[in-house]
Amino acid sequence: MTEVKEDLPMSALEAKGHDNKRIVQHMFDELAKSNPQPLLDHLADDFRFVIMGSGSWSRSYDGKATVLAELFAPLRARLGRITTIPIRLTAEDDRVVVEARGRNTTSDGKDYSNNYCNVLRLRDGCIIEWIEYCDTLLIETALGPPPTS
Asked: Which of 17, 73, 107, 117 is buried most, with the most CB atoms less than 10 Å from its CB?
């Protein structure tokens, strides 16, 4: 006997998770083409980016202006084109988890192909928090220490 499942309407939280996943999927599809604009368009002013670990780049960058100036600008200067390829996305409530692979070369020719697990939290279609798990030793080896602010 085949079990028949009823089509039940999505709860508000399931719908929010689905919408957030769609937004993040679009951003990462564009990051895979080295286009950061959709990501930048979806950063809340109170956005916080955290690189987990114990390396010199590991810390919390608080506020969109701080993230852009103290994290994104130095990365762009050292990497030029930044390509991040999404492998798998999982969404629930206000969070989207993204497994991704970076395929990059530093401005002085070193390979910088890091693997990431990113936990993004969204509010009203904008990213308010990004927690990144990656190989922080690779960051240090390929990019050197971050600039002092």
From this structure: 17
